[in-house]
Amino acid sequence: MKVRTQSKKVDKAWFNQHVTDPWVRRAQQDGYRARAAYKLQELDETYHLVRPGQCIVDLGCAPGAWCQYLRRRLGTVTDAAGHVRLRGVVVGVDLLPVEPIDGVHILQGDFRDEATLQALQATLQQALGGKVPQRAVDLVVSDMAPNLSGIEEVDAARIEHLIELAVDFAVQHLKPEGALVVKVFHGGAYDGAVRRLRQHFRTVKAHKPKASRPQSAETFLVARGLIG
């Protein structure tokens, strides 16, 4: 009973913090599905990541707030036939279902699976209007995070695994001048994540957005310029 009571107190405290969070209220007012949109916005404004005409892949995109921001940032254009289309390409991939976002391509599946990668390539080919090179992506973003157990060694291994997956995907699909954004947590996995990124990218910057909760250990690594 004691554990259950503590759990209820924690849940209530989290709920109270959530509903009074100014970033949550702002997200609701701006029509974003999550406060995370403002994390990407700050990263973009700081490092100039997003430009109209780009091809962008969002790994682990649920619930879709980053895809929403990317769509707004790229903007739309009306063609000669009067059709409104996105000024660029955004593809979101997640194991979980994601509600549709106008102009954004959402794929449900595991991006490690060959079937999902083939679907991604087909989506890029269709969106870009023809055969595309293997490295056709300008920006890969990943807000993926594992379910944390509270056991540092276990959590570090899970975090490192997700970062490894994102880096491997980026190395295979990014243009040479492309960029990768991944989430990491300060702790056992942080130094390893930085080392891994520096093996593949010329510059790696760490940044904690203001929209991250103060007590959160999360930060984001922004890597640019593929090596080799």
Automatic annotation (TrEMBL):
According to the entry, every stretch annotated as the Ribosomal RNA methyltransferase FtsJ domain falls at: 32-225
The record, for Gene3D superfamilies, names: Vaccinia Virus protein VP39 (3.40.50.150)
Recorded GO molecular functions are: rRNA (uridine-2'-O-)-methyltransferase activity
- What are its GO cellular component terms? cytoplasm
Where in or outside the cell?
Cytoplasm
Residue positions annotated to bind S-adenosyl-L-methionine are G64, W66, D94, D110, D143
Q: What reaction(s) does this enzyme catalyze?
A: uridine(2552) in 23S rRNA + S-adenosyl-L-methionine = 2'-O-methyluridine(2552) in 23S rRNA + S-adenosyl-L-homocysteine + H(+)
Q: Which Pfam families match?
A: FtsJ
Has the keyword Nucleotide-binding been applied to this entry?
no
| Record's keyword terms, sorted | Cytoplasm, Methyltransferase, rRNA processing, S-adenosyl-L-methionine, Transferase
Q: Which domain of life is it from?
A: Bacteria
Q: What does this protein do?
A: Specifically methylates the uridine in position 2552 of 23S rRNA at the 2'-O position of the ribose in the fully assembled 50S ribosomal subunit.
Give the EC number: 2.1.1.166
Q: Where is the active site?
A: K183 (proton acceptor)
Tell me the leader sequence span.
Answer: none
UniProt lists the family membership as follows: Belongs to the class I-like SAM-binding methyltransferase superfamily. RNA methyltransferase RlmE family.
Put simply, this protein is called: Ribosomal RNA large subunit methyltransferase E
